[in-house]
């Protein structure tokens, strides 16, 4: 056999290695999308419960346009990672849900998403519900809201059998914090050792509960998304986490633990596991969003008749919360070659038939409040959504006032411990001086926001802290598109 | 020597006819193409999955890159400066170190003791016992972590049920920052003890039976045979077993993520988990900073291995000098 020089052999190996490696590398010349069937439109989302609603929509779209939609459903945990990797290799799908962890304005700035052309009928149907900086940018439509913003994660879900066992009227759930604690005491006395289960290991969900409870205690908030970076005191523009309302909300949750009402396993449960514990009768109360009815209906059907629901408990018993205008869920990739088709697909999302199908999925409530009237859903889900329509207000959003605020929030580094960490630390006994910790968190967020504002302004952003201030807004009011 | 004499051979002489024996010897010495063919998969895969990612991480660690979009700006050593001032990084390093300091001696010692017992040819059901100890090793870590959540549950877990019979508890093993790390370490030792056991069993097969029989003939009892024959012969293996166990222990990511996710309140935040959180789990992914943590952790791992190996070598040399 002919001798191969060692250097030659190594060069051969290097070339062999370079081929597959270069195949994995990002191509800067090819505008790629995720590759499925040739000619199909690629769609990634994390809404597993929307299968039937979207399948019908896709079938209709294929019938009209002649293009099949290939849908991939990710777990919320892995969706962001999938998008990061896909973008790094120019393989973003044509349509995706924004799990980049960045406000939509940042995606628009970077060209990650593209505007779409909706049909005239769709445009008419969306009048009054599209917000600049949320759904439209420079007047161009990028996304459409399919869910209502009138929702929260802190409805009180109760096991009526356990309540009746404690001698309580299950149709009359506690509306105040004091009533809630009193009923917990009665439940303990009647043999339900731990009446309340909470997903303490799920810090994002606990943060949502805390924000809802603080709002129900009178805190007026301006909001961009649901993370701490985007939540500010509407009247001052400051970060509000050491305010009286937040401290009261903390104290309420803490009292449920110190009084022994919380199921001990809560400390290591996420929302799904906590729901299972509650549905199996280990606890009487569980805070969750309206989708709880859909999950129960699918997984614990026999339990449905024992379930009752009411709004979040609050100091005054009204349970008012607020959310900013709902984001659009689906976005068209900036490099998609099928933007025209995506526009037609997004137009179908605005039709009332889709809203009805959405309601029948019993996940987040549809943007069209009338869809529930025509949907065939259990009364429990209808009741939950009606409660939310009545008690959730529209919070002001700094991004709607100035879309560049989104760039500031995208620029801000995470502060750790964040609000979710602090909740976990305080309720778990790792933080003794809560006020000091929250004040420190507020200060660090403010410093980081100031830095981010400077960075964005240096790039021509035109943002100031004034963009976060809505002095005229009061807790319990709606802040509509005309109020900006 | 032969090769030297050949290279200094006059050029003309190289063309001279050689005997058949010389040709055969020369052929044997030529690197065959097959060597490279067989090496190729390793070189290619090692290049793709170790060298390439390592170099990429080094490059990424000098960038400000959120993983969002293709915008990356070079920031030099800024990520490393940030890392030095990051209390969570130091906390995660401390937790990783604590896991190593507690679990490695436990695994190595318990593995050795078990191996000595199971290596006894007169032990009944030795094969079955070896398998039993190895079963957790082959179980998927994510499933182990998930199942242990139930086993250690403070409300209805079997361990707390047992403790309640004794009038103790309930103990919130995974939900309290005082106990969570110890619970994770306990499960880690249980799951991976079988690997260390197999290392020691393999090492024990190298102890010549004649030596043990000779010692027995000379009147050495079991303890003396262990102390003066078996353990000295096992010492060289101890170095590599400790090094391997330390490396395995540093890769505790999957168990921590499935059991505690790094919580509660960072109490089980091993460095690998912190890297993942920073790169993918955070609300604002920060791949540049996560790469810097990864590089720093890699460097510290190598340093730890070097120090460990040097210490072991030094100890062995001193032993030999005695």
TrEMBL record, chain A:
Pfam families: SBP_bac_1. InterPro entries: Bact_solute-bd_prot1 (IPR050490), SBP (IPR006059). This is Extracellular solute-binding protein.
């Amino acid at each position: 056999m002919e001798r191969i020089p060692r250097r030659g052999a190594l060069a051969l190996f290097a070339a062999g290695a370079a081929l597959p490696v270069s195949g994995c590398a990002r191509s800067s010349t090819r505008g790629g999308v995720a590759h499925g069937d040739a000619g199909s439109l690629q769609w990634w989302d994390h809404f597993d419960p929307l299968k039937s609603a979207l399948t019908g929509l896709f079938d209709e779209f294929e019938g009209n346009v002649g293009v099949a939609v290939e849908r991939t459903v990710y777990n919320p945990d892995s969706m962001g990672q999938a998008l990061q990797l896909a973008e790094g290799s120019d393989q973003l799908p044509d349509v995706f849900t924004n799990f980049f962890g960045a406000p939509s304005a940042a995606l628009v700035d970077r060209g990650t998403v593209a505007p779409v052309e909706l049909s005239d009928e769709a445009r008419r149907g969306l009048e009054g519900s599209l917000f600049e900086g949320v759904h439209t940018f420079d007047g161009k439509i990028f996304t459409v809201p399919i869910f209502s913003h009138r929702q929260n994660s802190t409805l009180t879900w109760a096991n009526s059998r356990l309540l009746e066992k404690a001698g309580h009227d299950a149709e009359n759930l506690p509306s105040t914090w004091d009533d809630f604690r009193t009923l917990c005491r009665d439940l303990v006395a009647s043999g339900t050792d731990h009446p309340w289960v909470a997903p303490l290991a799920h810090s994002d969900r606990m943060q949502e509960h805390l924000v809802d409870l603080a709002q129900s205690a009178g805190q007026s908030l301006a909001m961009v998304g649901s993370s701490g970076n985007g939540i500010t005191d509407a009247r001052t523009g400051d970060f509000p986490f050491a305010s009286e309302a937040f401290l009261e909300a903390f104290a309420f949750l803490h009292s449920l633990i110190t009084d022994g009402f919380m199921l001990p396993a809560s400390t290591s449960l996420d929302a799904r596991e906590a729901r299972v514990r509650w549905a199996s009768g280990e606890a009487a109360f569980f805070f969750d969003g309206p989708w709880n009815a859909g999950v129960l209906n699918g997984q614990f059907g026999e339990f449905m008749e024992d379930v009752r629901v009411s709004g979040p408990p609050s100091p005054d018993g009204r349970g008012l919360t607020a959310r900013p205008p709902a984001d659009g869920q689906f976005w068209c990739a900036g490099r998609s070659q099928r933007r025209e088709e995506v526009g037609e697909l997004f137009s179908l999302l605005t039709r009332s038939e889709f809203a009805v199908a959405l309601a029948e999925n019993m996940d987040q409530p549809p943007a069209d409040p009338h869809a529930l009237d025509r949907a065939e859903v259990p009364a429990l889900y209808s009741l939950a959504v009606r409660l939310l329509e009545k008690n959730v207000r529209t919070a002001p959003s700094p991004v709607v006032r100035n879309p560049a605020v989104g760039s500031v929030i995208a620029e801000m580094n995470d502060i750790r411990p964040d609000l979710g960490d602090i909740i976990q630390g305080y309720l778990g006994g790792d933080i003794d001086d809560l006020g000091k910790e929250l004040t420190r968190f507020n200060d660090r967020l403010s410093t980081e926001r100031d830095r981010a504002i400077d960075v964005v302004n240096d790039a021509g952003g035109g943002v100031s802290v004034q963009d976060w201030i809505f002095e005229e807004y009061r807790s319990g009011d709606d802040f509509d598109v005309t109020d900006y | 020597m032969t090769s030297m004499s050949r290279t200094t051979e006059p050029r003309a002489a190289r063309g001279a006819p050689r005997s058949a024996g010389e040709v055969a010897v020369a052929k044997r010495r030529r690197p065959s193409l097959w060597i490279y063919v067989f090496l190729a998969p390793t070189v290619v895969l090692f290049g793709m999955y170790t060298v390439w990612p390592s170099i990429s991480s080094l490059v990424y660690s000098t960038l400000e890159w959120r993983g969002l979009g293709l915008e990356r700006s070079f920031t030099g050593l800024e990520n490393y400066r940030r890392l030095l001032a990051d209390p969570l990084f130091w906390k995660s390093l401390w937790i990783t170190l604590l896991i190593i300091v507690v679990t490695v001696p436990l695994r190595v010692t318990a593995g050795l003791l078990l191996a000595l017992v199971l290596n006894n040819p007169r032990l009944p059901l030795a094969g079955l016992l070896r398998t039993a100890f190895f079963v957790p090793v082959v179980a998927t870590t994510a499933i182990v972590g998930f199942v242990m959540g139930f086993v250690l549950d403070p409300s209805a877990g079997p361990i707390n049920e047992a403790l309640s019979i004794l009038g103790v508890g309930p103990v919130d093993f995974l939900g309290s920052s005082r106990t969570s790390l110890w619970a994770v370490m306990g499960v880690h030792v249980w799951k991976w003890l079988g690997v260390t056991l197999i290392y020691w069993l393999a090492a024990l097969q190298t102890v010549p039976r004649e030596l043990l029989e000779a010692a027995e003939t000379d009147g050495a009892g079991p303890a003396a045979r262990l102390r003066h024959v078996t353990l000295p012969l096992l010492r060289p293996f101890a170095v590599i077993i400790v090094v391997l166990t330390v490396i395995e222990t540093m890769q505790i990511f999957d168990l921590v993520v499935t059991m505690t996710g790094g919580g509660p309140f960072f109490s089980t935040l091993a460095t690998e988990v912190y890297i993942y959180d920073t790169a993918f789990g955070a609300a604002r992914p920060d791949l540049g900073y996560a790469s810097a943590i990864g590089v720093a952790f890699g460097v510290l791992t190598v340093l730890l291995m070097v120090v460990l190996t040097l210490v072991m070598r030094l100890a062995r040399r001193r032993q030999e000098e005695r």
